[in-house]
Write a structure and sequence with these properties.
six-stranded antiparallel barrel; about 160 residues; 2 domains
Length: about 160
């Protein structure tokens, strides 16, 4: 699976002065099927983060109007784009976590929509069981249940 995708594209202008870049590959094939793909990368050497989404039977990457202004990019400008998925992907997960997500499609679908911050927090919670491996399965089940319920982050216990 190729993680980094490089291509040259022309920037179109969308609503509210945002830049629109047509993505010439299918991110579902490159990175796994999702409704949207949080990505990071570079455009003409400048760092960028955002989301690749489906629009009008094609995939697009949208640039904020402020980024366009700061980078001195306007409509019709040809740019060199390098994009990669952000955060831990399902293919990067430990086998036990990946299996648990695969067994619960709702949890897996919600995992795919989470920003990397939330994914990493859930993985830290699971990986904190190093000294007590008996807790790992319990925590994986807890995380899968929370994800299936659409909870972005584990609720903190209330102080006593």
């Amino acid at each position: 699976m190729t993680r980094v995708q490089r291509f040259t594209a022309s920037v179109d202008v969308g609503p509210r002065g945002r830049g629109i870049i047509a993505v010439p590959f299918d991110p579902d094939e490159a990175w796994g099927a999702k409704s949207q793909h949080p990505v990071g990368g570079r455009i003409d050497g400048r760092k960028v983060r955002g989301t690749v989404t489906s629009a009008d039977d094609r995939w697009v990457f949208t640039l904020p109007s402020m980024w366009m202004c700061d980078a001195d990019v306007s409509a019709g400008t040809d740019v060199t784009v390098e994009l990669h998925p952000e955060g831990p992907q399902r293919g990067d997960l430990a086998e036990d976590i990946a299996t648990a997500l695969a067994a619960n499609p709702a949890a897996a679908a919600f995992w795919d929509t989470l920003a990397q911050f939330y994914r990493k927090a859930y993985l830290r919670r699971i990986d904190a069981t190093t000294r007590r491996p008996d807790l790992r399965a319990v925590r994986i089940a807890e995380v899968v249940d929370l994800l299936a319920a659409g909870v972005k982050e584990r609720p903190r216990p209330s102080p006593r």
